[in-house]
Write a structure and sequence with these properties.
Layout (H helix, E strand, L loop, with lengths): L3 E3 L9 H5 L6 E3 L4 E3 L10 H5 L5 E3 L18 H10 L13 H11 L12 E5 L2 H23 L8 H4 L3 H7 L1 H12 L11 E8 L5 H18 L3 E4 L1 H9 L1 H7 L5 E10 L22
Antiparallel strand pairs: 1-4, 2-3, 5-6, 6-8, 7-8
Helix pairs in contact: 4-9, 5-7, 5-8, 5-10, 10-11
């Protein structure tokens, strides 16, 4: 249970802690000050500590010495922010140049400022920068896709296959024969159709029981992707690998995840060989209001 104390001499009864604790309702206002009346319900989001204007709240998991005052620099203009969004594109052609591990550590650190459900902060990463290990993961990914496709075409097995790889996956595999052939041919030519010979592969993982693990990992990843541009790096989310590692226990063993963790996202990182000169248009999303 969270240990919460209120300094009544500092509290000005502004009610902000009550407002920001909108789900668990840990705080109530009394005649003297705010009071933590339901500390057992606290889920340690830290909103009360972050927002208190007089530092009257002491929460054991967020000591004030670890929570510096936020310096608010000039934020990017809307135009520059939009330009940053449009500049980032998925890169699949990388220079044969190593990326310093300190840069990757900084990117991972920047990713932690993304929101996580219930403030779980449970996204961790495994990094690969050994070309032989990355090639092993690439080859294993293609091999597993080919194996799944073969099982999907086998009339004796394909009835039970959805129990192992999910409903509809077998049909998708049977319909993707051309793509699978291209992946296998590319591997046979010495190409890397999975990670594109990127010098860095990052795999984000969360506890197996985290229902929002994928969301948390995606939020962190996009922070990192945008930040990577400031280092001159390109990135690409790798869907093929994620699809396979979710269905294949042998691929799961190859990445060496800690016990009780599940992979949620994989990204390739490196210095791009090319710079994109033009921004491409994107479809404007439909936006109905108050539909029934």
């Amino acid at each position: 249970m969270a240990q919460i104390t209120i300094d009544e001499t500092a509290c000005i009864r502004c009610g902000q802690c009550v407002d920001v604790c909108a789900i668990t309702h840990v705080f109530e206002l009394t005649d003297a000050s705010s009071a933590a009346v339901r500390p057992e319900d606290c889920w340690n989001c830290g909103q009360c500590v972050a927002g208190c204007p007089t530092d009257a709240i002491d929460l054991d998991t967020f000591p004030l010495e670890d929570c510096p005052i936020i310096e608010r620099p000039d934020l990017p203009s809307r135009d520059s922010l939009t330009a940053g969004f449009r500049i980032r594109r998925s890169q699949r052609a990388f220079q044969d140049v190593a990326v310093d591990r300190e840069v990757i550590r900084e990117l991972v650190s920047l990713g932690r400022w993304a929101p996580t459900a219930s403030n779980s902060q449970s996204v961790d990463w495994i990094a690969f920068d050994d070309p032989a290990r990355i090639d092993e993961l690439s080859r294993g990914t293609v091999d597993e896709i080919v194996r799944f496709a073969g099982l999907a075409r086998n009339p004796l097995i394909r009835i039970a296959l959805p129990l192992f790889i999910g409903p509809g996956a077998g049909r998708q595999l049977r319909n993707a024969s051309g793509l699978i052939d291209r992946l296998q041919s590319a591997r046979n030519r010495g190409e890397d159709p999975v990670f594109y010979h990127a010098p860095i592969v990052l795999i984000g993982h969360c506890p197996s029981g985290n229902r929002f693990g994928r969301d948390d990992a995606v939020y962190a990843t996009y922070n990192m992707m945008l930040a990577a541009e400031t280092f001159g790096l390109g990135t690409c989310q790798i869907g093929f690998f994620q699809i396979v590692v979710e269905k294949s226990s042998r691929m799961l063993r190859r990445i060496g995840l800690p016990k009780g963790r599940r992979p949620q996202i994989a990204i390739a990182i490196g210095y791009p060989r090319h710079e994109f000169r033009r921004g491409l248009p994107r479809r404007s999303p439909n936006l109905p209001w108050n539909t029934r």
